[in-house]
Amino acid sequence: MIEELGVIKKVDQDHIWVETQIKTTCGGCVANQDCGTGAIAKTLSPKSQLLIFRCTKPANVGQKVKLGIPEDDLLSASALMYMLPLLVLIASALAAESLLPMFGVYHELWTVVFTASVTALSFLQIRRHLQGSKGRKYQPKLLELVPLRGTGIDIREVTDN
Predict the structure, then answer these.
(1) CA of 76: how far to CAs of 68, 123, 154, in Å?
(2) Among the four residues 26, 56, 94, 119, which has the most C-beta atoms within 10 Å?
């Protein structure tokens, strides 16, 4: 389980709005100051994200929460977003190169148009899949509410019986 801490920004009757800080890999890189990619990432990327969770436990604004997503779900979402479109791109280019000449189309521009169209359709299908009911497994889950400072923590005495 990959875990992250967030801060509650708003509390409703049975929902909480949690803000998390977006971290890029550039933040931990030694060459961050001298890298153009790091400079672009700092200026263009949003610094935080607001997520909504169903929560029936009492919560307060400013309270920290622990969020998590299973590693398997993260890996399968990454494969869906990166590997599948790449495979579709390669397969559609190969198919266009072999099928279009059968219809008398020899110009490479049509191969590019066909490949781009099929790849764009694959992105749309992946987006629809991720926004549907099966896509909910790729969303982070609320694991626990972190107790506020100054509130008591239950301590139980453990005996060796």
Answers:
(1) 15, 15, 39
(2) 119
